[in-house]
Amino acid sequence: MEPQFLPCRIAVLTVSDTRTPADDRSGDTLVERLEAAGHVLADRAITPDDRVGIAEHLTRWIGEDGIDVVISTGGTGLTGRDVTVEAHRDVYEKEIDAFGTMFTILSIEKIGTSAVQSRACAGVAGGTYLFALPGSPSACRDAWDGILVHQLDYRHRPCNFVEIMPRLDEHLRRK
User: Fold this and answer.
1) Number of domains in the chain
2) How many other CB atoms sit within 10 Å of the CB of residue 138?
3) Torsion angle of alpha carbons 106, 107, 112, 115, nearest 10°?
4) Higher-confidence residue: 170 or 154?
5) What is the pLDDT of residues 70-81, one digit of tens each?
6) Containing structural domain, residue 16
7) What is residue 127's DSSP assignment?
8) Which of 1, 34, 60, 88 is 20 to 30 Å from the Cα of 49, by its Cα?
9) Percentage above 90 pLDDT, the chain
10) Ramachandran region, residue 123 (left: φ > 0; alpha: ψ -120 to 50; beta: rest)
């Protein structure tokens, strides 16, 4: 018997000094895809390109029982205002190094050597998965369609993020 689909509760955070709910195309792309896959939008917000503010927002969501996954979009580039990766790493307990590698491989197929300009990353904190994606709708589609739709599906074999989710915070329960 095939395992049943288990929906994740996903929060979407757009990091931008200029985006508003009316023109947040990357956030819209992620919401459309996660809902089409059967997941639940747990929360959604836009926050400025500020390292401390981003980390505080991530930390707040990590502390909420109703959020399993946080996907941020924006601020993963190389400019001075791109601080999302640093904010994510400020809260990670463990980094998922291969996520950035997989995203780069997917990006090379689409944009060639321009893929070197992305610093997409992922990690885990407080039993919550955290993914930092570039701010373009295309990059969000690529990350979702090429990686996240599979890894956030309990039925995906040989393994997936959902099946180990109950054990992500076991170190916190041992005390």
Assistant:
1) 1
2) 14
3) -130
4) 154
5) 999 999 999 999
6) 9-173
7) T
8) 34
9) 91
10) beta
